[in-house]
């Protein structure tokens, strides 16, 4: 009989503890989740378009330099001059390519930071706790892409 009473008391205690844990879990605040289509943001960003145009222009200039070097080396007959010009052009092309890559990377980082700031500002304004890319979410979340697109244009 004594064992049954202790067993009943233990069961009641376990039930009370479980009920209280469940009650506290339910009382946690609900998360409000937003989703953003990152590719759509990048497509509609004027800064990204300008960066692409700039990159294409610099690539065209680099290709012009390469063509000039090839033509000049083909027309040269002296082997010493060929080696000298080839080394000179190779150095010019490599330094120009490195400068292009560095400039592109820096501009892309600024654009990325600006887009993140706009998304973050919009999320806080709408009281979202979490913003995820559309590709990571199977279902749920409020799509704020169009609002952000209007702000980044």
Note the main attributes of this structure:
153 residues; mainly alpha; Protein Binding, DinI Protein, Chain A; three-stranded parallel sheet; 3 strands; 76% helix; 7% strand
CATH top level assignment of the largest domain: Alpha Beta
Report low-confidence residues grouped into runs of 5 or more. none
Give the radius of gyration.
31 Å
Label the CATH architecture of the largest domain.
Answer: 2-Layer Sandwich
CATH superfamily of the largest domain: Skp domain
Can you give the helix content as a percent range?
A: over 70%
H-E string: HEHHHEEH
How much of the sequence lies in strands comes to 5-15%
Number of helices: 5
Describe this structure in words.
It is a single chain. With 153 residues, this protein is mainly alpha-helical. The chain folds into two domains: 1-28; 31-152, Skp domain (Protein Binding, DinI Protein, Chain A). 76% of the residues lie in helices and 7% in strands. The protein has five helices and three strands. The chain has helices spanning 2-26, 38-44, 46-75, 79-125, 145-152; strands at residues 33-36, 130-133, 142-143. It has a three-stranded parallel β-sheet. Helix 2 (38-44) runs parallel beside helix 5 (145-152). It is elongated and about 105 Å long. It starts with a helix and ends with a helix.
Detail the topology: elements first, then pairings.
Layout: H1 2-26, E1 33-36, H2 38-44, H3 46-75, H4 79-125, E2 130-133, E3 142-143, H5 145-152
Parallel strand pairs: 1-2, 1-3
Q: How would you briefly describe this protein structure?
A:
This protein is mainly α and 153 residues long. The chain has five helices and three strands, in the order H-E-H-H-H-E-E-H.
